[in-house]
Structure formats: structure tokens, C-alpha cells
Task: inverse folding
């Protein structure tokens, strides 16, 4: 059992599910460099390395390898492959070609088969409605030739049709010719494409009609117009193509003539005469162009008064390389270079729309549908890159999150539980402290009897100058509703007798500064905080009432109160506000 | 473009991966957001806990420093105040000779009054009467009031005795009670 080729291993997308189509496309994306190398999708003639094969007679007459670099084409003669070669043979041929002639930098290969072994023209049926756009007619002919060609009976998979226009003709019923070439070499090119899939090396193929390519290159051989109608005979080994031009150089008609089996052309002169008459061409000039790579000039059609053209004599043409090869790889003329025959509508149209380089052996529609297009490949490629970038970003984000989670999980804060904290304990401790403060306040040195007696001492430092008959000290709290602490008033009332010196002393005391000084002195001596007069929450008031002692009898020593000339009444009031540290707590300690 | 591949490649090659990536990102961000949110809550609680524990340590230190004082103060209430005062004065009286210091009155009130009347803290009033020299009285009061700080003086009245050698002192104390 034969092994499947790379292409044969592919399944047509219509037979696959959506997921299967994606998998097949992804497989092609991964296993080939289709998404990176645009040459997979470029025409063979646009590639830098091209293998040009000249099919003539039963095989390939000659082969050249064209290497394009910086606008210059270098031609290398190579061994031509067999047209009926099998896949194995072509595999070896391609491998040999790549190793011997293609540098390692070659990214692709274009295989261009110039079909010089057959050429037929079919009559386009008289159209009821000729499309204004010739391109539309071209597609119609390619896709539905039976609608355009009268009596067309060939199967589409056996014969390839391409439209070739007569842009300069005035006969709108015949806007061009339907060129017909068999698909007998289709398999040959398909094997090259199979090898491309197998070797992952882009090989693009093309089947060109050699006469059409030569026709497009005629302005190189006939740069100036002959000044009268002319007929160009393109001579190949098995057929000749006759191209009739008007005096203005416009192509009017193409005709092909098959050679006799002996290889000798039939009576071309009669055909030229007949056609010239039909086209109403007055005495056309005949120009014969031998193009066969096999035969000598002895088999060139014989025409009277005909000129034989030798394209090898033209400048800028590489001698020995088939003319078709050089035309196919040549650069298009710039509009300002279009002069003489090149400036006609015919050649302008042929050049502009590349009518001469139409691919007669293009891959079948089924084969084309098998492979994803360049856009799909780019979507897969950039989608893959985007996915990788996203995956890296995702990985980084995940890693960062993981690292952060690790940090967080290691933080004692993560494991702390609110219920672990006994806030009640703090409340109890606060209560104990509050309790302590209350007891501290209850037990404070707020009012002491011995301190009051010391105050008495300080009020009257000279005990012989005064006699105190009564000391009355009271402490009176002042309660207000809803107050935390109760303010209090301490009052000292002293009654007695004094001499003049003592009265003077009492008068000194009877001032804010005087009584403050006394309290300050007692505070310093006793350490009793209640007598500290410097607090803003305390107010100290002194009131002295003194008068003469009516019982004053200095000569009666038995009575003390009669020994002093003055009697006095001293009242000292000390008020503590509720904000004072010695104010009385109204609530109980616990 | 190949229409047979276009939709499946766009769907499986772009739409699904984008959805997966966006979903995964959303999942990661959601998880991280949840984690950070939980962490912020726990962190805040942890800071609060630390604060409370720090407060507790400070409070315990304070309470530890206060405890000896409290124990000393509470010891004052182990004996009934009135009998403690009476016993104390008996001892003081022994230190002085004859007329230098004499306790002449002692009366225990049952209700709060004076300073004690301003507070909800339980208290009683004790009325004391003394006769003695100035210095003896003052020394006795120093000892009494220093030893029994629960006594808060409500009033004192000092007058000379008729023989003018000693003083009469009438005192009223508020005595704080523990219970």
C-alpha cells in the first residue's frame, strides 16, 4: 500500500467539524512555517528562486534556475526533470536541486512550467451581453467555460480555459480568445506542491502558456511599429500561433495551427492570407519568430516575403535562455517607457492585468480549500504569540498573587482571631484602676485636724502678741446633680485678741498675697496638698474684722483678754471646685 | 482567506483563548481581591488586638503598681473604724501624762454627713472630744490621721479650757466605709 502524501493526509474541511478544522489548521501552523514565511502564499513568479521548465513535445526541453537578487536575475542551467516522474523521483530531484543550486538562504522555490507543447483556441460564443469588464469575462471562462464557449464538451478537470483579450479590437462580439490547454501536466505540478508540504519548504507552481508569454514580450523584439498591419508567427515544434495586428499595433486575432505529424508546419501562408482578408488587413507584413527549443530553423513555417526574427540578437536578453523565461521574470514597463508597440492598448492591458501569465494549471478548488489562507495562518500565529504572552502574564499574576498569599498567610495578623482578645479583662483592669483612683481620692489629705492646728501656728508666729479664744474649722461639701465630683469649701473662723504688732501682722495676712504666702508655707512644712494655693481650681479668701477691745485694762494682769488693745475676727475660706483633685467623688468605689 | 477555516480559527484560536485568559485573569484578580480584602479586615482586627493587648499590659503594670497601696488601704477596713479609732486613741493616751491629753468624748453616728454626705460611698460620722495641751493634741491628731487616712475631718472647734492651761477640742470625722 502506498504511503499517503502530505496533502493526501489532509482532510477537506467540509468533512471536519469546526474543532477538527481548527486542529488541522493548527497542525499546519505548527508543522510548517506557513504563518512565518509569506512565500507559501505568493505567486511562483514573485519568488526569488524560480525553476523555469520548457515543456515541448513529449518532455521538458530545457530548464533554468532563476535567482533574483536586487532586481537582477541570474540564470543557471539545470537538468530538467521528467514530466512523467513519480513522487519519489521528484523528491530526489528537488533535494538535489536544493543541495546543489539553492543556497541555504533560499526560502522558497517557484516552479514555472512553460507549456509549449499545446495551444488551442476556442471560439467564444456570440454573447448577448458582453461584460464591460474583461476581468469578469475571465472569471466566467475559468469557472463556467460552457457558458462562454460554444460547443464546449470537455470536462473541467481535463482542460483548462483562460481568457486572452483583444483590447484594441473594434469587434465587440469577439473581445478576446478562449485559450484551451489540457491539464495533462497538472499532476506533475501537484507532486511539487505535495513535496512542499512534505519537506515544509514552500514550492509554488505555475503553468504558463509559452505563446502568450512570448506575445507579451513582443514589444522587446518589435519595439517600433512597422507602419502597416502585420502578422507574427510564433513557431513551436508542434504548433504555431498566428497573431494578427492592425497598423496601429493592436492585436486583432489569434490563430493556432498544428504542425503535421512530421513536425513540418502546414501551409501557413494560406491561413495568413485568408485571415488577413477576413480581418480586412491590407497587405500585412509577416514576421516569423522561431521559439522551439528542440527543432532547428528548418521546421520554421515557410512564408513568402516573411521576415525571420531572432530574439537572441536583442539587447538585454540573455543568450541561450528561452525568451519566455526572460519575459516571465522581466520587470513591468513603467508608463513613461511604453512607446511604440509597448504603448498600444493591447500591450498596456496585457501588461497591466498580467493576461499573459495566467496560471493554466492552478491547484484545483478542492486543493486550495484544503489549506488555510495567509490571514488564518497569521491569526493562528499572532493568536499563539498573544496566548503565550497572556500565559506568561497570567503566570506572573498568579505567581505574584501566590507570593502575596504566602506573605499574607505568614503574617500573624492572618491567624489572629478577634475572639482571642479578652477586652473584658481590660474593662476589669480599668475598673480596678478607676476604683483605685476613687479610693486614692477618698483617702487623700483633704482635711486634717493637725494641719489646721499648724495653720494656726503659722498665722500667729508670735504667740505672746495674740490670744485666740476660738478656732472653728468646718469642711462643707457642695453637691450638684449629675456631677462626678462634689466641690467643697473649707472655712476657718478665728476669734481672739491681739496687740498692735499682731494686728499689723493680721492686716498683712488679710490680703490675697498674704494668706497665699501663709498657706504656701504650711503646705511646704506639712506636705499637705490641700493647702497648696497655686491650683487654678482653688480660691482663697480672707476676711479680717478688728476693733478696739472695750475691756482692755492693761493693769489687770489676771485676765488675758483685757491685756490686748484689739479684738479680731478672722475668717479664711478655701473653695475647691469640682474639677479639683481633692473634690469628693460622688459615686462609690467598688 | 479560506472561508472553511475562518470561523473555526477565529472561534477556537482567538475567541476561546481570549475568554479563557480573561476568565483566568478575572479569577486571579478576584481571588487576590478577596484575599486582600480579608487580609485588610484581619489586619485591622490584628492592629486592634495588638492595641488592646498593649493597653492590657500597660493596665496590668498600673494595677500591679497600685495593688500594694490597695491592699494597704483595704487593710484599714479589716476592723470596724469606730473601734479601731477608739483603740488607737487609748494607745495614744498612754503616751501622754495626765492632763496633757485626755479623750473626753466619743460618739459614733450611724448616718452619713459632712464630707461623706456628698458621696455614695458608705461612711459614718465619728464625734470626738479631747482636752490637752496644744502640742499634745496636735501630735495625737498627726498620729491618728496618718494612721487612719479613711478619717476625713468635717469640723474642729478648739477653745481654751477654763483654767486656760489646756485646750478643749471637739472634732467630727467622716470615716469612709468599705461596705
Result:
Amino acid at each position: 500500500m502506498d504511503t499517503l502524501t502530505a496533502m493526501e493526509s489532509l482532510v477537506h474541511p467540509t468533512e471536519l467539524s469546526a474543532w477538527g478544522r481548527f486542529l488541522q489548521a493548527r497542525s499546519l501552523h505548527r508543522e510548517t512555517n506557513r504563518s512565518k514565511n509569506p512565500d507559501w502564499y505568493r505567486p511562483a513568479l514573485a519568488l526569488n528562486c524560480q525553476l523555469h521548465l520548457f515543456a515541448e513535445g513529449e518532455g521538458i526541453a530545457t530548464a533554468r534556475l532563476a535567482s533574483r537578487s536586487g532586481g537582477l536575475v541570474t540564470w543557471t542551467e539545470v537538468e530538467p526533470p521528467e514530466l512523467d516522474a513519480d513522487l519519489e523521483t521528484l523528491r530526489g530531484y528537488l533535494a538535489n536541486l536544493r543541495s546543489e543550486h539553492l543556497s541555504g538562504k533560499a526560502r522558497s522555490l517557484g516552479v514555472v512550467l512553460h507549456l509549449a507543447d499545446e495551444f488551442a483556441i476556442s471560439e467564444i460564443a456570440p454573447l448577448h451581453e458582453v461584460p464591460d469588464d474583461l476581468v469578469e469575462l475571465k472569471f466566467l471562462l475559468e469557472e463556467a467555460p460552457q457558458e462562454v464557449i460554444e460547443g464546449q464538451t470537455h470536462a473541467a478537470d481535463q482542460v483548462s480555459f483562460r481568457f486572452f483579450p483583444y483590447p484594441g479590437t473594434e469587434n465587440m462580439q469577439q473581445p478576446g480568445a478562449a485559450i484551451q490547454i489540457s491539464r495533462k501536466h497538472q499532476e506533475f505540478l501537484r507532486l511539487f506542491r505535495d513535496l512542499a508540504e512534505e519537506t515544509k519548504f514552500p514550492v509554488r507552481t505555475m503553468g504558463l502558456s509559452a505563446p502568450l508569454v512570448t506575445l507579451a514580450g513582443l514589444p522587446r523584439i518589435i519595439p517600433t511599429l512597422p507602419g502597416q498591419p502585420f502578422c507574427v508567427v510564433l513557431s513551436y515544434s508542434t504548433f504555431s500561433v498566428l497573431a494578427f495586428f492592425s497598423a496601429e499595433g493592436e492585436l486583432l486575432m489569434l490563430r493556432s495551427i498544428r504542425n503535421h505529424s512530421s513536425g513540418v508546419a502546414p501551409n501557413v501562408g494560406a491561413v495568413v492570407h485568408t485571415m488577413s482578408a477576413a480581418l480586412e488587413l491590407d497587405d500585412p507584413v509577416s514576421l516569423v519568430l522561431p521559439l522551439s527549443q528542440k527543432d532547428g530553423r528548418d521546421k520554421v513555417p515557410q512564408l513568402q516575403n516573411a521576415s525571420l526574427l531572432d530574439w537572441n540578437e536583442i539587447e538585454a536578453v540573455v543568450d541561450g535562455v528561452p525568451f519566455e523565461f526572460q519575459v516571465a521574470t522581466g520587470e513591468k514597463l513603467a508608463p513613461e517607457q511604453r512607446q511604440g508597440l509597448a504603448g498600444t492598448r493591447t500591450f498596456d492591458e496585457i501588461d497591466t492585468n498580467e493576461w499573459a501569465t495566467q496560471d493554466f494549471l492552478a491547484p484545483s478548488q478542492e486543493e486550495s480549500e484544503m489549506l488555510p489562507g495567509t490571514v488564518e495562518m497569521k491569526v493562528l500565529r499572532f493568536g499563539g504569540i498573544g496566548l503565550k504572552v497572556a500565559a506568561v502574564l497570567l503566570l506572573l499574576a498568579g505567581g505574584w498573587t501566590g507570593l502575596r498569599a504566602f506573605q499574607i498567610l505568614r503574617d500573624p495578623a492572618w491567624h489572629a482571631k478577634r475572639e482571642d482578645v479578652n477586652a473584658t479583662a481590660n474593662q476589669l483592669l480599668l475598673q480596678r484602676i478607676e476604683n483605685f483612683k476613687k479610693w486614692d481620692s477618698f483617702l487623700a489629705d483633704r482635711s486634717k485636724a493637725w494641719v489646721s492646728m499648724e495653720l494656726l501656728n503659722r498665722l500667729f508666729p508670735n504667740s505672746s502678741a495674740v490670744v485666740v479664744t476660738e478656732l472653728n474649722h468646718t469642711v462643707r461639701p457642695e453637691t450638684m446633680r449629675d456631677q462626678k465630683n462634689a466641690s467643697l469649701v473649707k472655712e476657718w473662723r478665728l476669734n481672739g485678741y491681739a496687740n498692735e504688732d499682731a494686728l499689723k501682722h493680721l492686716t498683712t495676712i488679710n490680703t490675697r498675697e498674704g494668706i497665699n504666702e501663709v498657706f504656701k508655707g504650711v503646705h511646704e512644712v506639712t506636705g499637705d496638698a490641700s493647702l497648696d494655693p497655686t491650683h487654678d481650681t482653688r480660691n482663697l479668701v480672707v476676711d479680717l474684722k478688728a476693733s478696739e477691745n472695750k475691756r482692755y485694762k492693761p493693769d489687770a494682769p489676771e485676765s488675758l483678754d483685757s491685756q490686748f488693745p484689739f479684738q479680731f475676727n478672722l475668717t479664711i475660706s478655701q473653695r475647691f471646685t469640682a474639677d479639683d483633685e481633692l473634690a469628693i467623688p460622688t459615686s462609690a468605689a467598688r | 482567506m479560506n472561508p472553511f477555516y475562518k470561523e473555526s480559527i477565529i472561534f477556537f484560536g482567538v475567541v476561546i483563548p481570549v475568554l479563557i485568559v480573561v476568565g483566568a485573569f478575572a479569577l486571579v484578580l478576584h481571588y487576590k481581591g478577596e484575599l486582600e480584602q480579608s487580609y485588610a479586615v484581619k489586619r485591622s482586627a490584628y492592629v486592634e488586638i495588638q492595641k488592646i493587648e498593649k493597653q492590657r499590659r500597660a493596665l496590668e503594670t498600673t494595677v500591679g503598681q497600685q495593688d500594694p497601696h490597695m491592699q494597704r488601704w483595704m487593710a484599714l477596713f479589716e476592723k470596724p473604724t469606730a473601734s479601731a479609732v477608739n483603740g488607737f486613741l487609748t494607745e495614744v493616751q498612754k503616751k501622754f501624762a495626765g492632763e496633757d491629753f485626755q479623750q473626753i468624748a466619743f460618739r459614733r453616728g450611724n448616718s452619713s454627713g459632712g464630707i461623706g454626705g456628698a458621696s455614695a460611698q458608705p461612711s459614718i460620722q465619728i464625734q470626738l472630744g479631747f482636752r490637752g495641751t496644744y502640742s499634745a493634741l496636735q501630735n495625737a491628731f498627726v498620729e491618728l490621721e496618718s494612721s487612719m487616712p479613711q478619717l476625713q475631718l468635717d469640723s474642729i472647734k478648739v477653745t481654751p479650757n477654763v483654767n486656760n492651761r489646756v485646750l478643749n477640742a471637739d472634732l467630727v470625722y467622716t470615716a469612709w466605709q468599705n461596705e
Q: What stands out?
A: Chain A touches chain B through 86 residues (CB under 8 Å).
